[in-house]
Amino acid sequence: MTTNIPNSFALRLADTAAQISLKYFGTPLDIISKQDDTPVTKADREIEQTLRDIIEQERPEDGILGEEFGIKETKNGLTWVIDPIDGTKSFTIARPTFGTLIGLCQNQTPVLGIIDQPILKHRWIGQTGHQSTFNEKLVSCRPCPNLKQAIFGTGSATQISDDDPTRFARIEQACRYTVFQGDCYFYGLMANGFIDTIVENHLGIYDFIALVPIIEGAGGKITDWSGNNKTLEGDPTLLACGDPTLHEKILKLI
């Protein structure tokens, strides 16, 4: 890892989040609508607060950016980025495509990412300079230079077509077929070689920082819709491709 961040610390954060998710998964939960109409539950908030407490106690110089409780500025250039439950809607209906996202940035650049799906016990880890892993085994995105063979994933058609009604149709018609609503789990499937391109919009920083080292470490490419690298200052659009040669082709359709 980078700058004296031990693997054991990041993994302990993921283990802690998993224990809380398991406690609440499949139980009735009050769903609170935030100001942007996105849902949040007691589980989201308990996970993030617990992880923040651990980071603040053990690494007080590190910054924290979380979905539920905002920003603590870094004093050393390192910032943890936490999405306690990516896919809260899935979590509330007991569908195991949600996950906890834990990312680490050095200055603006993502250098570590974890996708943890505690129900299935599936965990992806990406780290700058290393090949990504799935449950401790090395993984790679699959070759797919041909659009007609590409499996395309997204949250919803409206998510990527609100400012261009034909965008979704252009991509869907060019690809082999489309799958929907996989939350962060789709990105793990890309790293494992099962999905070829993912296009999303309206993402928060906490939604994508952890994904960057995982996709890049598996040989893929992940940017915004202008082809810029995803960073702490990134915009809400995202294009991920398992095969980098597919990336330019999808960019043209966007």
How would you sum up this structure, described in words?
- The protein has 254 residues and is an alpha+beta fold.
- The protein folds into two domains: 130 residues, 2-Layer Sandwich (Fructose-1,6-Bisphosphatase, Chain A, domain 1); 107 residues, D-Maltodextrin-Binding Protein, domain 2.
- Helices cover 32% and strands 26% of the residues.
- An eight-stranded mixed β-sheet has the order 4-3-5-6-7-8-9-10, sandwiched between helices. Strands 12-11-13-15-14 form a five-stranded mixed β-sheet, with helices on both faces.
- α1 packs antiparallel against α2 and α6 packs parallel to α8.
- The N and C termini lie far apart (34 Å).
- The mean pLDDT is 93.
| Beta-strand segment tally | 15
Instruction: Calculate Rg over CA atoms.
Output: 17 Å
Strands side by side in the biggest sheet: 4-3-5-6-7-8-9-10
CATH superfamily of the largest domain: Fructose-1,6-Bisphosphatase, subunit A, domain 1
Mean of residue pLDDT values: 93
Q: Within the CATH hierarchy, at the fold level, what is the topology of the largest domain?
A: Fructose-1,6-Bisphosphatase, Chain A, domain 1
Tell me the span between the first and last alpha carbons: 34 Å
